[in-house]
Amino acid sequence: MRMKGTEGEIPDAHFTVDKQNISLWPQAEPPPKSGLCVVLRKAPAIGAVLVCLTLVLVASLLLQGILYPWFMGTISDVKTNAQLLKGRVDNISALGSEIKKNSGSVEAAGLQFHLVNASLSHVRSQILKLQTSVEKANAQIQTLTRNWEEVDTLNAQIPELKRDLDKASALNAKIRNLQSSLENTSKLLKQQSDILQMVSRGWRYFNGNFYYFSPVLKTWYSAEQFCVSKNSHLTSVTSDSEQAFLSKSAAEVIRWIGLTKAGTEGGWHWIDDTPFNKAQTERYWIPGEPNNSGFNEHCVSIRVLSLQSWNDSPCDIKYSFICKRPYIPSEP
Ligand SMILES: [Ca+2]
């Protein structure tokens, strides 16, 4: 061991301990072991040994007094640090378990996050669709608004339109009347046309009937056959005006009419099936007629220009004759 003092004042002290032998020397290099036995043998050296031992004891005591508390303090510090470390390790373990626990939650949270993201995307697309729908609805609302404004304009025009409609209704009524008049005129024209057509064929029109005054002479039956061939019969007489018309138109030429007793038991009848009115026709006979001269006068003719113009004659005599045909308006 080497104890170093203040440089220049105290020289370094050197010593060795070897099997209960302590050697001291003043210089850096120790003396050779062969010299130790020499020292032990020397009495004055014992005091130095004692001094050395004393110094060793003092040094040991000093070391024990200084190092032990330091060592114990260090141990205590180590223990404290170890406890602190243990506490931290425990905390770290607890944190690890917490982290493990939380990692599952983090995964679940991640999954939830993805789901939420997907839902958000869906919601965004729905929002976009809704925006599109809202835009379309707005456009339709604007169109409806414009249409409504047009409806308002039309509503404002309704009174005027109603007046026009009333005028149109009045015009329609006039047109209907005109149409009716035109139809009547058309009927009359058609009737005139029919009459003219019949007149052009030699017939005369009177009070709804056509009459044909034949220029040729035929027996009563042949005359009737001729009339039938012209869609008519020998004429009947149903009124004073007709009787006056026939006697006047006969122009004092003897002409057969359609009254006969032939085919019956003495009774007069009209060949066109008009009911015979004996009371009304009494005044149409020439006074003294019918006399049934020779009991053979079964057919009637008009002989004179008078309301009393009828005479019964034999049916096979050839006279002129009068056919009668009701006027039936033809379809337009
Ligand atoms: Ca007669």
What is the element layout, followed by pairings?
Layout: E1 2-3, E2 13-18, E3 21-25, H1 36-40, H2 44-200, E4 203-206, E5 209-213, H3 220-229, E6 233-234, H4 240-249, E7 255-260, E8 269-270, H5 278-281, E9 299-302, E10 310-313, E11 320-326
Parallel strand pairs: 7-11
Antiparallel strand pairs: 1-2, 2-3, 4-5, 5-11, 6-11, 7-8, 7-9, 9-10
The chain binds calcium ion.
Residues 289-291, 293, 297, 311-313 line the site of calcium ion.
Subcellular location: Membrane
Coiled coil: 127-188
Protein name: CD207 molecule
Description of the structure:
The structure is a single chain. By secondary structure, the chain is α+β, with helices and mostly antiparallel strands. Among the domains are: 2-84, no CATH class; 203-326, Mannose-Binding Protein A, Chain A. 56% of the residues lie in helices and 14% in strands. The strands form two sheets. Strands 4, 5, 6, 7, 8, 9, 10 and 11 form an eight-stranded mixed β-sheet that branches. Strand 7 (255-260) and strand 8 (269-270) form a beta hairpin. 13% of the residues are buried. Residues 1-11 and 34-40 have low confidence and may be disordered. The site of calcium ion has 8 residues, from strand 10.
Full CATH superfamily name of the domain at 203-326:
Mannose-Binding Protein A, subunit A
* C-alpha-based Rg, rounded: 83 Å
Task: Give me the secondary-structure category.
Answer: alpha+beta
The SSE string, one letter per element, is EEEHHEEHEHEEHEEE
| CATH topology value of the domain at 203-326 | Mannose-Binding Protein A, Chain A
Strand content: 5-15%
From the spread of the alpha carbons, the general shape counts as: rod-shaped
Distance between the termini: 166 Å
What low-confidence regions span 5 or more consecutive residues with pLDDT below 50? 1-11, 34-40
Ligand kinds: calcium ion
Largest sheet: 8 strands, mixed
How many helical stretches? 5
Mean pLDDT: 85
Organism: Otolemur garnettii
Keywords: Coiled coil, Disulfide bond, Lectin, Membrane, Transmembrane, Transmembrane helix
Membrane topology: Single-pass membrane protein
Domain C-type lectin: 206-324
